[in-house]
Write a sequence for this structure.
């Protein structure tokens, strides 16, 4: 009987988690694709919640954050009365969507079996994304026909880049960094076999191939953490990789020289070089860095309500992209503080609490999401990635699971008994 119930829980978990990822297969070229994907995700999550208890330890922080953000959005609409547009109203709905995502994450991870399900699902998603992304890069002409069904072919900058199903380079790169953090956590905690090491490295390769500069900045600390863990354990894969790399360089050194010569003027390297060695001129140029700085300056100059924000602004400044510019103008210091508290309360708990450290060292989900939160400021230089309708389910659902494991005492005891 117990085994039957356990199998039922696992089956239910599989049925619930797969649509959250499969929804990304909805073509981004389909009219209203974001609304369609959001509706499907909501149906799955609400259906799951209808048969599972709501975790109060997740319900409280999710409610506080989302109620505050809805209030700030409502105030922004009132302040913008007479100049807001229809799309501004959808910002109210977005935080209800985020609330459901967090509650679903808490309820989903309330079952011990769920983590094992997610581990398997994440691994399979990683394999699929890696294979698909590498094919996009190395067989771009072959994939051109397929690509027109799920990506924008009018943007030449996206050609031969592994965006898979995530619409833009920095959205895709951010998801790859997220998956890399979860994979690294699995390597550290579970001492997983060599395939996980390979998956981790290939995810970092995908980040580089997207040429997202904000995501590229996260690679050094991720690689250092990985090397520290691998060398500390004297992992054989490190020495195997070094030996294989040496042979590869010796055989293909001429091809490698040509490759680096071709990418020396690439978007990624050109931008990094300018930012590091010619920042003063780069910030005045017509590039993404200059545009982000201009947005922040505009936000600062036009926000007369520093505490609560001065409006949604899509009608008169649609392209507030970076987190600092968008949150400061729309939600003020109050909204910025609530976002920081929501995402960094688990990290603070892990730092100051002995039990938090124990959970961090024992739980793949907690370690992975906390690691990701450390890199979130860098990733948010380009866009508020966590609040995108297409990306919110994977970010906020897993964050809900983290709140469950960290702050739910009953769950914590059950977790350690299982261990």
């Amino acid at each position: 009987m117990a085994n039957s119930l356990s199998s039922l829980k696992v089956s239910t978990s599989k049925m619930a988690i797969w649509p959250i990822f499969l929804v990304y297969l909805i073509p981004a070229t389909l009219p209203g694709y974001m609304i369609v994907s959001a509706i499907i995700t909501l149906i799955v999550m609400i259906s799951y919640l209808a048969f599972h208890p709501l975790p109060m330890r997740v319900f409280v922080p999710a409610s506080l954050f989302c109620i505050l953000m809805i209030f700030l959005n409502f105030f922004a609409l009132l302040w913008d009365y007479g100049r807001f547009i229809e799309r501004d109203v959808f910002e109210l709905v977005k935080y209800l969507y985020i609330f459901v995502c967090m509650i679903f994450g808490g309820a989903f991870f309330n079952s011990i079996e769920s983590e094992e399900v997610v581990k398997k699902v994440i691994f399979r998603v990683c394999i699929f994304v890696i294979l698909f992304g590498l094919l996009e890069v190395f067989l771009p002409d072959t994939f051109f026909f397929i690509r027109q069904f799920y990506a924008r072919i009018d943007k030449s900058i996206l050609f031969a880049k592994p965006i898979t199903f995530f619409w833009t380079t920095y959205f895709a790169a951010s998801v790859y960094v997220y998956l890399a953090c979860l994979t690294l956590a699995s390597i550290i905690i579970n001492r997983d076999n060599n395939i996980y090491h390979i998956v981790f490295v290939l995810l970092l390769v995908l980040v580089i191939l997207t040429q997202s500069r904000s995501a590229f900045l996260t690679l050094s600390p991720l690689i250092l953490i990985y090397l520290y863990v691998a060398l500390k354990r004297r992992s054989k894969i490190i020495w195997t990789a070094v030996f294989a790399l040496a042979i590869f360089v010796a055989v293909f050194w001429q091809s490698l020289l040509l490759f680096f010569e071709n990418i020396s003027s690439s978007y990624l390297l050109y931008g990094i070089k300018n930012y590091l060695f010619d920042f003063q001129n780069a910030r005045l140029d017509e590039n993404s860095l200059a545009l982000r700085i201009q947005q922040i300056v505009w936000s600062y100059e036009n926000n007369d309500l520093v505490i609560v924000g001065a409006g949604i602004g899509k009608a008169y400044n649609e392209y507030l992209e970076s987190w600092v510019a968008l949150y400061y103008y729309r939600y003020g210091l109050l909204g910025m503080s609530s976002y920081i508290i929501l995402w960094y309360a688990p990290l603070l708990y892990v730092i100051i609490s002995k039990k938090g450290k124990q959970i961090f060292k024992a739980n793949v989900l907690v370690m992975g999401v906390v690691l990701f939160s450390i890199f979130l400021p860098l990733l948010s230089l380009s866009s508020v990635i966590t609040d995108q309708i297409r990306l919110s389910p994977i970010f906020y659902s897993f964050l809900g699971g983290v709140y469950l494991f960290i702050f739910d005492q009953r769950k914590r005891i059950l977790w350690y008994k299982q261990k």
Remarks:
- The CA atoms of residues 208 and 216 lie 6 Å apart.
- The chain has a mean pLDDT of 78.
